[in-house]
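User: For my dataset I need records formatted as: sequence, then structure tokens, nothing else. Please produce one.
Assistant:
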Amino acid sequence: MNAAAALALTNDRRRVFIVDDSADVHELFGLLADLHGFALDTARNGQEALDKLAKLEQAPSIVFVDFSMPIMNGSEFVRKVRESGLAMASKIVIFSAREKTSVPDLDKSLMWLSKPFNLADVLGAINHPDLQ
């Protein structure tokens, strides 16, 4: 999918949830949400994300989770989401500077974005066929 097609597909009010301790990543996703018309929820770590997910009226379409965070890392967050049943219908995307194959305890079926990622990577994940 080219970038123009990816941009066009984000206008259906998808709900995106970003879990990352980086203010820059939150700012990037905030700008993307404003530009491309999707709803955005954010959390700074896995525990905060679990607390917020429990209170959401609508599950997110997709959850982007940083692998390395304080308090609760991405792998632990995914495990707890699955145990709790929260966001079961949500696509989960892990992002990290590490290689996917270097993470021993992570479900390898999860979508993975390598850092640094770009606009096309993020929009491609949001518009992935599994979310159509």
